[in-house]
Input
Amino acid sequence: MAEQPDFGAGPISSAVFRVARAHKALAARLLRETGLRPGQELVLMTLWHDGPQRQVDLVDKLDSDASTMVRSIARLEKVGLVHKEPSPTDRRATIVHATEASFHLRDEVESAWAELERLTVGSMSRSRRTEVLATLTDLESNLSAAE
Amino acid sequence: MAEQPDFGAGPISSAVFRVARAHKALAARLLRETGLRPGQELVLMTLWHDGPQRQVDLVDKLDSDASTMVRSIARLEKVGLVHKEPSPTDRRATIVHATEASFHLRDEVESAWAELERLTVGSMSRSRRTEVLATLTDLESNLSAAE
DNA sequence: CTGCATTCCCTGTTCGGACAAGTTTCTGGG
DNA sequence: CCCAGAAACTTGTCCGAACAGGGAATGCAG
Output
């Protein structure tokens, strides 16, 4: 507790910073028992949801970076949650698969995300949540309009 | 453009993630010409605003980490924006000062933050901004209540 | 005053994120 | 067909963030 890094400059930007940090820290804490680090779970969830795909597809969907993805995949592969296969149709590409072992984590990861959502929205009413989501979407569209 | 990493899991959490990433990326871009990396400007702004202080004070105010602060200060010191002096009253502590050189950056950094704020809130009305800030504050308090 | 917990800082390590540069492979216009 | 440009991946580098561990100085209880 006990911070107000807000020296007057950009109250909303400051608030975004603080929310982002707190949210990420909470996500890290909830994912801790799964052995995953924040970010890795997004890769796995994408693979679980959309099936095997190229690294570049993961990069696009997660709005990540190719070099980040290379290392993230490498780490997931090292712990056996993912494996790579050459694409049969494009020798530049590798297809990333979620392993059987990874599916044993699925419930745990998804319940961690459910818990994250629950803690994030707190005791907000359904209609309030809708407003919050609209607000975040507004911010996102402003930010992406700024390129 | 073109992402919706939202696989149904935690729409608000997903949105927080995306806003956080876009906001940080925008901050990085705006600070680029100052030579600062996102996070360093917060240290400098705190020093400019509150004056020389111990590392632990910076850590507390920015809700950062002691080891992160050590390295951040070291980098700022290497480029001459900050210098450290032993505390006269506590030999464990070092007092961090903003250098003269750093003050030449102040206008640039502060206008980058103003621009960040401007782009973040976009064309929102004053009352809408108040709502947005209230929403972010709500989220922050939920998150910090979750510890 | 002594002993012990606490505070403050530092180092090592790991990871996500981003940028730059380079390799291999593909594709499309000529 | 051929080649220039694009696409997919990789590696190197740097940085913020977080955790573990540790050393030095301080402060407090007894």
User: Anything to note?
Assistant: Residues 37-40, 64-65, 67-68, 71-72, 75, 90-93 of chain A lie near DNA strand C (CB under 10 Å from a C1'). The CA atoms of residues 84 and 117 of chain A lie 31 Å apart. The mean pLDDT of chain A is 91.
